[in-house]
Amino acid sequence: MRALFGVVSLLVALAVVGVIAMKQLKAVNHSTSAPSADDTSATAVQPAANVREQSQQMQQRVKDDVARALQQGAARSEEPSQ
């Protein structure tokens, strides 16, 4: 009787964890499947025919992002501090 109660309680705990995990996965999938309009223009990767083109696109995007960040940093340093 004691072993049966232990097994049943483990199954109930497993079911609760499973339900919570499914809710979390649905929430994550829902939030990542529909990016906002601002995100799509800045981070969209054009479909490429092969891995080499995808790699080059990602490298170019990183270069552009770094250049933009450096420009923003330079603009901030030129502004007078208050």
Q: CA-to-CA gap between the ends?
A: 74 Å
| Unreliable stretches covering 5 or more consecutive residues | none
Write down the overall geometry: elongated
Query: Number of folding domains?
Result: 2
Oligomerization: single chain
Overall average residue pLDDT: 81
The biggest sheet, with number of strands, parallel, antiparallel or mixed sense and barrel status, is:
none
Q: How many helices?
A: 3
Q: Kindly state the percentage of residues in helix.
A: over 70%
SSE order: HHH
SSE layout and pairing:
Blueprint: H1 2-33, H2 37-43, H3 51-78
Description:
By secondary structure, the chain is mainly α. Helix content is 82%, strand content 0%. It contains 3 helices and no strands. It has helices at residues 2-33, 37-43, 51-78. The radius of gyration is 24 Å and the shape is elongated.
Attribute tags:
single chain, about 80 residues, mainly alpha, 2 domains, 3 helices, about 0% strand
In short:
By secondary structure, this protein is mainly α. The chain has 3 helices and no strands.
